[in-house]
Amino acid sequence: MSFRAINHTMGYTARPGRDAEAALYHARLMACEACIARFAHECQPANQLCSIVARPIAGKCPHSRWPGEIGAAPPPTPAKIPHSALRTPHSPLRVGLFTDVFAMGGVERWWLSLCRQWSAGTKITPAGVALTDRGPVYLPIVAEAQRFAPLYCSKSRQIPGARALEVDAEACRALAARCDVILSWCHSDLKPLLGDFSGPVVQISHGEGEWTRRIVGDAYVAATHFAAVSNAAVNAFPPAIRPKVRVIENGVDLDRCTPALPRAQVREAWGLAPDQIAVGYCGRYSPEKNPLAAADAVAWINANGRARLLPSRSPAIAVYAHPHFVTDSAAGDVYRAAGGRAALIPEEASRGVGYYASNMPAPSIPHSEYHTPYSICVAPDHMGDILAALDVFVLASREEGGSLGLLEALAAGVPCVVTPVGAVDDLESRFGILFTRVPLHPTPAQLGAAVLTAASSTISRQRGREMVFHNFSAARMAREWEAFLLNAECGMRNAEYATSAPTDSALRIPSSALPQAPSLKPQDFP
Predict the structure, then answer these.
(1) Is 60 left (phi over 0), alpha (psi -120 to 50) or beta?
(2) For residue 56, how many C-alpha atoms fall within 13 Å in the half-sphere facing its CB?
């Protein structure tokens, strides 16, 4: 008859002093699942009630010697039991993240979106983030993550509110001891950081480029499961691993993409004229992102295209929204690329609640022609307001995984100029034309012409909004990750107990040796 131990142990709650602990209860039911008497339909005392007979601390079965009984195989030792098997029944799955970097990129937004969604449910809870000593951090984003779970790091990081240990490896192991599942990003030497953790380890690919390939290519050997944020990101794994990779596409917080202020009010606060084309980039300041593409497009439009195509308009303007663009070096790059005129919009003008870390001072660049600059850098406050104030969004990356910035721009209904990277081809093959394209290494002329095309494009903005709303929300992403992680944990637990449950036939009583019920005839009944 059909009997699955896992169906009963998932809902098991031990009564103190009366019932067997969860690990022992599961080991007993695994023995029942393989019981000869059950296979022969001869399990008279329990039949479908093995789950009840196995509950008492001193429970016994006449057909199968359970772990803990005299002559039976010893129960699995805690070192061999995965962390997931020891968690309290009915409690949520505890998921932690290992990472080198916690700044303000897509991975951080991905984790925060998952934390928000999981914290509202009952099946998964964020256990924390373990941060190595290798990469940068952005303290406001760290603080946001600490609202959901602790951050573990070395003392040298000096992060306020963090659980600091002597070295980063100890921090990773401290988090692992409190997790049922580990998500890994950025670790080429992952195995030493895991310690004796024996639960599922999911190696994730968030990109398709050489850097991601190198990291994933070294770290995958310590992982038990594999995931990627797009079909393109799967290619970061070695060919032999790719068939095993689960693709879970990114999703965005829709409320983050919804404006809280009117478009005209935001543009006026930035000092933009009503007829100015605002060309925006919201993302990491990193070479592979080609962040200066928006400024290059604006420089070409103002030098070449405006007089011919937009004679009555004010100069086009490049808008940058990211904390890195309030540093001297980044803003100076934008200033030069955009044609020599720029402005840093003060915090009070951009709603006054933008983040400025103490180690990111405002740039000391010339603020000529404040009301008609060629570029501005704004505080990354509410992204919905920033996106609504733009006319075109530019993502001219040389490589991508599944860009959250691009999905946010689509959700806000902003026309997008893109290079053919990441999920771009996949999205258009499924949902139709969504973008204005430029080559992988576009020239300023190609960027400028594409921006002018996109600004007057007939491509439906509503199509992008509906696509994101129905297919790329953070809620959908969290549900898919929830199902994937619960299945991964459940599968490893079954495999562990399948190998630890007694299988020696000498420990079982053959059906021929069982007491036989008396043979009754019709005349024996009154």
Answers:
(1) beta
(2) 7
Which tokens sit at 489? 């944990």
Q: Which amino acid, one-letter code, is at 201?
A: V
pLDDT score, position 460: 75
Which residues neighbour 343 within 8 Å (Cβ) at sequence distance 6 or greater? 271, 367, 370, 373, 375, 376, 377
pLDDT digit string, tens, across residues 73-126: 444 443 344 444 455 556 889 999 999 888 878 889 999 999 999 988 889 999
Q: What does the alpha-carbon distance between residue 490 and residue 148 come to, in Å, rounded to a whole number?
A: 24
DSSP track, 82-140: -HHHHSPTTPPEEEEEEES-BSSSHHHHHHHHHHHHHHTSSSEEEEEEEE-SSS-B-HH
Please state, in angstroms and rounded to a whole number, the distance separating the CA atoms of residues 264 and 411.
19
Q: Around Cβ 439, how many Cβ atoms within 10 Å?
A: 12
Inter-residue contact 201 to 193 (CB < 8 Å): no
The confidence score (pLDDT) of residue 251 equals: 94
- Tell me if residue 313 falls in helix, strand or coil: coil
Task: Read off the DSSP letter of residue 79.
Answer: G
- CB atoms < 10 A from the CB of 125, how many? 17
Whole-number Cα distances in Å, 201 to 97, 130, 190, 402, 494: 10, 14, 10, 22, 16
Give dist(CA 144, CA 112) in Å, integer: 8
Query: Per residue in 183-211, is it b (16+ CB within 10 Å) or e — as a string?
Result: bbbbbeebeebbeebbbbbbbbbbbbbee
pTM: 0.72
Tokens of 251: 């999703």
Cβ(473)–Cβ(254) under 8 Å? Answer: yes
The amino acid present at 259, given as its one-letter code, is: P
Spatial distance between the Cα atoms of 241 and 295, rounded to a whole number of angstroms: 40
Q: Where are the beta strands (DSSP E) in 136-235?
A: 151-154, 163-165, 181-185, 201-205, 225-228
For the beta sheet containing 343-344, the strands, ordered from the edge strand earlier in sequence to the opposite edge, are 343-344, 375-378, 317-321, 278-281, 392-395, 416-418, 436-437
Cα–Cα distances (Å) from 59 to 9, 20, 65, 69, in that order, read 16, 8, 10, 9
Q: What is the β-pairing status of strands 416-418 and 317-321?
A: unpaired
Strand order in the sheet with 163-165: 163-165, 151-154, 124-131, 93-99, 181-185, 201-205, 225-228, 246-247
Rounded to whole angstroms, how far apart are CA atoms 327 and 480?
38
Note the residue count of the chain: 526
Domains of the chain: 1-75 (no CATH), 92-250+474-489 (3.40.50.2000), 254-471 (3.40.50.2000)
Block mean pLDDT (10 aa), the chain, length 526 = 55 78 76 55 48 76 59 41 51 92 86 93 92 85 92 92 93 93 86 89 89 80 92 91 94 89 85 85 81 86 67 74 56 61 43 29 36 56 85 92 90 94 91 93 93 84 90 94 89 53 40 43 45
CB 375, CB 342: distance < 8 Å: yes
Beta pairing partners, 473: 252
